[in-house]
Specification:
Elements (H helix, E strand, L loop, with lengths): L5 E7 L8 E2 L5 E4 L7 E3 L3 H10 L6 H15 L8 H16 L8 H8 L4
Parallel strand pairs: 1-4
Antiparallel strand pairs: 1-3, 2-3
Bound molecules: zinc ion.
Zinc ion (ZN) binds next to α2.
Length: 119
């Protein structure tokens, strides 16, 4: 049986991966499927997924699945990283705009303040 599939190389912490190897450029890599190194390619996840879909016989299906998951994670919307102090800074600007409004008839700053929400 020939085993000439390409595997997906990912950067790892060597202590967690018994089959990790050291790359020439530095850093440790392992195959995403956890098997002993055969023919691993360090493509970005997107490229590995695209290539494995075109030639499923040539690419390790476990590695392809791992690359798919990594790709989905990359594309997932980023969580809101605003901290409370970021939000406070926004609120403070709104308050300042309200307090420095030229006239109480100008209710745009007040409206903005009313629309502010913590989350
Ligand atoms: Zn693999």
């Amino acid at each position: 049986m020939t085993n000439r599939k390409y595997h997906w190389a990912i950067q790892v912490v060597p202590s967690m991966h018994p089959h990790a190897w050291r790359a020439h450029a530095g850093g440790y890599y392992a195959q995403a499927c956890g098997r002993r190194k055969k023919s691993a390619v360090g493509y970005p996840a997107e490229r590995f997924v695209a290539k494995s879909q075109r030639n499923p016989d040539w690419y390790c299906s476990d590695c392809a699945r791992a690359a798919c998951l990594a790709l989905a994670k990359e594309r997932a919307p980023k969580p809101d990283t605003h901290t409370d102090s970021d939000r406070y800074a926004v609120l403070r600007k709104l308050v300042e705009a309200y307090q420095s409004a030229k006239s109480y008839d100008d209710d745009v700053p007040l409206q903005a303040l009313r629309d502010w929400s913590h989350r």
